[in-house]
Amino acid sequence: MIQEYILNKYGFKVHTFYIAEVKGNHGLKMYDAPNAVETLKNPRKHPTQKAIKAIEDALNYFELI
Question: pTM for the whole thing?
Answer without folding.
Answer: 0.83
